[in-house]
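Before relying on records like the one below, remember that each one covers exactly one chain. Contacts with other chains, cofactors or solvent are not represented anywhere in the record.
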Amino acid sequence: MGYLKSEITKRNLPELMRFCAGEPVEGLEGWNRRRVEIQELLSRWFSGYSTRIQVRMEGRCTGIDEESFGGKAITKTVQLNLTSDYSFASFPFQIALPKAIKNPPIFIYLSFTPAIADGVGEEILDHGYGIASVYYQDIVPDYYDGHQNGLGRFCTRNPYDSWGKLKLWAFGASQILDYIMDQEEVDISRIAVMGHSRLGKTALLAGAFDSRYSLTVSNESGAGGAALFRGKTGESIRDLYGKGSRLWFAGNFFEYMDRVEELPFDQHFLLSLIAPNHLYVSSAVQDVWADPKSEFLSCVAAQRAYEIYGERGLVTPDHFPEAGDVLHEGGIGYHLRKGTHYLSRYDWQQIIAYRELHHV
């Protein structure tokens, strides 16, 4: 047994390639059924279910800057209006496309501020990528409001398995994707979804439940994101029960905050749903709250899903990475940088390098 395999064995993870009833998953047909089972598990016990009511989306351009970023790009502001037979909600986003590239690949970026890509948009545009940037709190506000604002009031709720705010933010990203694929001149085969921290958790849910993203990027997403819960240091399920984050998840999730070993999934299940599309996870050495070792081991455990498609998952030496290590060969990319919890230009540079290498 190799070193990394032994480290995963110590975590006593639920088996990815075994149905809940106990029989092994065999072949792609078996994996397709297992994927549905995993999505059901995660919806019931982790993220909550998306609304089952029909939603109609209409986008309206409310402003355009033909000379944005010093004339390099065209930037539009779009208001997305979501309507059901019972309710209405609306939120804006911005899309900046480089003038020099016809039908560019694009990032759908979940932003912590109203600034495009949290202020580093020019560097991304200079690499030939467009950016659709949404301030996440415009979708649903990030405070304890009993789901009474934004998309949180868009459907009836229960305290058990209704969608939490992570799933709501991911739903908003997929509505933006709908609009872009229908209205914008971009390369629809190369649309990535990306987020940092709690928005890295969101990006993983978006990629796991919407197969149209060519690449899903999670930067330092930690607990409830890429990191395994079993054996994790730093943030725990009990910590996530705090008022600042309690509404991110389905109520059922917190039944396991004092019995993590009984959790019917772990986060490698979430990562596995992104296969065969590309996945990128990045960590930082001093981000002990997120626990980079648990993020990395989750990638190792999820690669079985890539292998069943005949693809390589995480291509890595048989040891934990060290600061500065970049693993870009497989369908799962990873890097570990020096420093603390932060989305840096270095992180962006490695993520863009991975996109260019794999043309995703």
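Strands lie at 56-67, 73-83, 88-98, 106-111, 130-135, 191-196, 215-219, 278-284, 326-327, 332-337.
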